[in-house]
Amino acid sequence: MVLIDIDNTLLSFTGYVREAMREGFSFYGLKPYTEAMFPVFEKINNSLWRQLEQGTLTFEELIKCRWDLIFKELEIDFDGIIFEEYFQKRLFNSAVPEDGAEDLLKYLSRKYTLCAASNGPYEQQMNRLRVGKMRDYFSYCFISSQIGAQKPSRQFFDHCFRILREAEFPGLIPEEVIIIGDSISSDISGGINYGMQTCLYQKNMIYERSDCEANHVVSSLSEIKNIL
Ligand SMILES: [Mg+2]
User: Fold this and answer.
1) How far is the CA of 57 from the centre of ligand 1 (A)?
2) Quick one: 102 and 210 in the same domain?
3) How far is the CA of 119 from the centre of ligand 1 (A)?
4) Ligand 1 centroid to 201 CA: how many Å?
5) Vertex 6, ends 130 and 164: CA angle to 5°?
6) Which of 52, 117, 149, 182 could form a Cys-Cys staple with 3, CB 3.0–4.6 A?
7) Residues that place a CB less than 5 A from ion ligand 1
């Protein structure tokens, strides 16, 4: 049994954001997008998602303040809520695949039951999997907005295991499940705390194997075929 994260594991959220900033800034007549602006998005967005994972911020609160905070730091005078609407609307249909994502799903789906495990809005994430032609590889899709809890919380994984045990795998235990994802704070910590096997996907290999408690660390999705 394999749980797989979606954003920046199967679908490149980073690639999407760059595209949306470049085209959105031009569409609204803001400062032209430069690559130096991306780290500002990343810093603020990551810090907001940490708060969400810790349960100190809701997704509704996040989308209300995200672009106001980014625009303030970029010294752009524009309504963050309007930009967030544009950003969400575009994101709904965006599916920029990570390198090797479809190959990996094809390979894993022949050997294991695959479950998507993602923090985000349900309809949006499901649509992006469909647009990316990845939906059919998954027997189950666990998306936080529908569950009412996010990774890394216990409630999120309790829900996954309850559904899986009731549906097809009555004796399923966490040790028999591996979670693959790019986030140490949500995928890997969540998996370790729940007793699952873990595989960290770090495209740029920021973490050495020894810095991270994950059972496996890979820098490309194709390496996962050597593990599973
Ligand atoms: Mg992710």
Assistant:
1) 18
2) yes
3) 8
4) 9
5) 85
6) 117
7) 5, 7-8, 182-183
- What CATH number has the domain bearing residue 88? 1.10.150.240
Q: Do both 19 and 72 map to the same domain?
A: yes
Q: Are residues 118 and 85 in the same domain?
A: no
pTM, two decimals, is 0.85
Q: What's the gap in Å between 6 CA and the centre of ligand 1?
A: 6
Report the separation in Å between the CA atom of 200 and the middle of ligand 1, taken as the mean of its atom positions: 10
Q: How far is the CA of 209 from the centre of ligand 1 (A)?
A: 19
Residues 80 and 109 placed together within one structural domain of the fold: no
Separation of 73 CA from ligand 1 center, angstroms?
24
Report residue 2: phi and psi, to 5°. Answer: -130, 125
Q: Are residues 81 and 125 in the same domain?
A: no
Domain count, the chain: 2
Exposure string of 58-80, with b = 16+ CB inside 10 Å and e = fewer, is: ebeeebeebbebbbeebebebeb
- Domain assignment of residue 84, given as a range: 13-92
Query: Are the C-beta atoms of residues 183 and 160 closer than 8 Å to each other?
Result: no
Residue 95 exposure: Cα atoms within 13 Å on the Cβ side: 17
The CA 8 to ligand 1 mean position distance, Å, reads 5
The pLDDT profile of the chain, 228 residues, written as one tens digit per residue, is: 999 999 999 999 888 899 999 999 999 999 999 999 999 999 999 999 889 878 899 989 999 999 999 999 999 999 999 999 999 999 898 899 999 999 999 999 999 999 999 998 999 999 999 999 999 999 999 999 999 999 999 999 999 999 999 999 999 999 999 999 999 989 999 999 999 999 999 987 665 555 678 999 999 999 999 999
